[in-house]
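Predict structure. Chain length: 192.
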Amino acid sequence: RLRLGPIALLGPTGRGQPKAWREYLLFGAASFAGPEAARPLPDLVLRRRESFTLSAWFRGKAAGVLLARQDTSLTGTPTSSALQVQLDAEGRLRVRGGDQVVSSAPGFTDGEWHHLALSFTRQDLRVYLDGVPRGGCSADRQAAAFAQLGSGYLAGAWRPWSGTLAEVFLTREPWDPERVAQAARERPPSTR
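Prediction complete.
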């Protein structure tokens, strides 16, 4: 298995990564607290023809945007957003893709570890939370020029997320429900 990282070695665009990669470790663990903590994602997350899965463990007690793709960098004001993964005030995970929203039950801002998998194909996105399929939405990546973890533009303002992400991976193929369930059954990072 090929594991590369951290993302800082590749820079904000991800240029320089090997063409034959199958699994890419973005980082082992990182805490987020404010917009300056946001981390850019590689170009793969923006390409329209790529299929991939983003897998991560997260924990936190605050609302905010965990992942977003939009048409401007963190210093601008976006006019369009292609994807937002957000925890709301009630602790619901909401994934917005195009005009569609996938929403979980409340309670995911409890400070415990939770597993998130976003499985992209060319046409759609499947959302899994703690190994359970939560639905799907559009994976339109045409409107996105920038993508990052830890902040996103929502309701007229940048909404940083405060919490911890761990074992953040990109894999070159979409995962099926069995593969996601296997990843979610692994013990959370702080219990290993």
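Summary: Residues 177-185 form the longest helix (9 residues).
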